[in-house]
Write a structure and sequence with these properties.
- By secondary structure, the chain is of the alpha/beta class.
- The protein contains seven helices and seven strands, in the order H-H-H-E-H-E-H-E-E-H-E-H-E-E.
- Strands 3-2-1-4-5-7-6 form a seven-stranded mixed beta sheet, sandwiched between helices.
- The model is unreliable at about 220-225 and about 230-235 (pLDDT under 50).
Length: about 240
Amino acid sequence: MASAADVPPESDVSPEQAEEVFGDALPRMRRYADLLADEGVKRGLIGPREVPRLWGRHLVNCAVVEELLPEGVEVVDVGSGAGLPGLVLGLMRPDLHMTLLEPLLRRTVFLKEAVEFLELPNVEVVRGRAEEKRGELYTDFITARAVAPLDRLARWSLPLLRKNGSMLALKGEQAETELADAEKELSKLRPSVSDVIKVGRGKVEPATTVVRVMVTSDGGPPPGSQRGGKKKRGRKR
């Protein structure tokens, strides 16, 4: 079972809050946090100033997005970087098939090492850019955090979604404005509906802001293309 000892005393998240958010995943989340604070900083994946606020600003902020993911779906995390939010979600939810899509070699090396270190059979790492994967990746959900402005992110990501699939973009205080500015572009890409939602209310303060764009028609890669990564994985649905 998770325990308060899994959260360092200097953390910006209380042990009680961490237990509520992460549950049984808390011990492995601590291992990931330690990895980020050590190798993540050494390799330039996160700044040293982020370490004191690693739990609240990053891990908890990403973890609560799992509220938006149904059981057993396929998720591609675009521009995964240090694994935020993709690796966090893969840790939280072993039922997900998570693909971490990242173009930079040094980051993909770190991600592969992290997946092996954390023993995550439901997570795979793919090197590449989303705009290059049209016709190769086909998924239920896209996640992204601090990757690009919404209109550009949508151009890369929406073609990869199945009908009724959703892009979940973690954004900040300007989410409503950014969505308003991008709506015309979104409508040109694929028929879709979009909104701004808050997740993690009562668990994290402030709640995590997510721009959700759900495509309402077919238009992604053709049937027979790869699903959620370069190889298919059998699993119960």
